[in-house]
Specification:
The protein has 83 residues and is mainly alpha-helical. It has 3 helices and no strands. This is DUF2164 domain-containing protein.
Length: 83
């Protein structure tokens, strides 16, 4: 499993990391430091976030399938047998 972002998306994340360090910690972090922190997060935390997304997608699809099953069942016509 490889989570990859475009160069533009990665740069946006790095910018956010730099802003976070400056605003929340009062520290300046350069591009290299922010990039290394980004790589750490992607390696160590990325799989947890990815797996949560997969589980959420599975749950949503299961619910959609249940809804679809109910919708299809509602289309059935009643049948009567005569005795």
């Amino acid at each position: 499993m490889d989570i990859s972002l475009t160069k533009e998306e990665k740069q946006q994340v790095i910018d956010h990391i730099q802003n976070y360090f400056e605003l929340e910690r009062g520290e300046e972090i350069g591009n290299l430091g922010a990039d290394q922190f980004y790589e750490f997060l992607m390696k160590e935390i990325g799989p947890f976030i990815y797996n949560k997304g997969v589980k959420d997608a599975k749950k949503m699809l299961e619910q959609k399938m249940m809804d679809l099953d109910e919708d299809i069942a509602s289309l059935e016509k009643p049948t009567y047998t005569q005795r």
